[in-house]
């Protein structure tokens, strides 16, 4: 579950050459500034400053990955870091196209946390400090 201070992508495969994980957005910007113009770095900094962990959308009862992807696009546009979903059907029931849609677009920039039940989701979010 994504907590208020967590940089969720540090848990993914974003590793430095020496194998250390990238720990925060500031490190991403620092590394990118080596090869980007000052104007582009300023745009990165503005986008990072506008992102928030204060709000976390939780989706429950959605069967269509296309609908989940639409919420992910909106969440990313609003600057949210993560979206939580309570899975209501086995992944095997989703078409290959629906499964791949979750990996496209805004979902690349969001952490998607999947929960087996509403109770687990609420407990995880409360553990991370959400109300």
UniProtKB/TrEMBL annotation:
Keyword Methyltransferase listed: yes
GO terms of molecular function: RNA methyltransferase activity; tRNA binding
Residues annotated as domain tRNA/rRNA methyltransferase SpoU type: 58-130
Source species taxonomy: Eukaryota, Viridiplantae, Prasinodermophyta, Prasinodermophyceae, Prasinodermales
Cross-referenced InterPro entries: Alpha/beta_knot_MTases, SpoU_MeTrfase, TrmH, tRNA_m1G_MTases_N
Source organism of the structure: Prasinoderma singulare
Descriptive protein name: tRNA/rRNA methyltransferase SpoU type domain-containing protein
PANTHER family given in the database record: RRNA METHYLASE-LIKE, TRNA_RRNA METHYLTRANSFERASE SPOU TYPE DOMAIN-CONTAINING PROTEIN
GO biological process, one term: tRNA guanine ribose methylation
Keywords, sorted A to Z: Methyltransferase, RNA-binding, S-adenosyl-L-methionine, Transferase, tRNA processing, tRNA-binding
Entry-linked Pfam families: SpoU_methylase (PF00588)
């Amino acid at each position: 579950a994504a907590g208020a201070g967590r940089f969720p992508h540090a848990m993914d495969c974003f590793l430095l050459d020496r194998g250390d994980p990238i720990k925060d957005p500031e490190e991403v910007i620092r590394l990118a500034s080596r090869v980007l113009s000052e104007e582009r770095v300023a745009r990165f900094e503005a986008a990072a400053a506008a992102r928030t962990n204060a709000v976390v959308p939780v989706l429950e009862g959605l069967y269509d990955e296309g609908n989940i992807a639409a919420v992910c696009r909106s969440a990313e546009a609003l600057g949210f870091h993560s979206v939580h979903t309570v899975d209501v059907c086995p992944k095997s029931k989703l078409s290959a196209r629906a499964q791949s849609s979750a990996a496209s677009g805004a979902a690349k920039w969001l952490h998607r946390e999947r929960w087996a039940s509403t109770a687990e989701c609420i407990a995880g979010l409360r553990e991370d400090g959400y109300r």
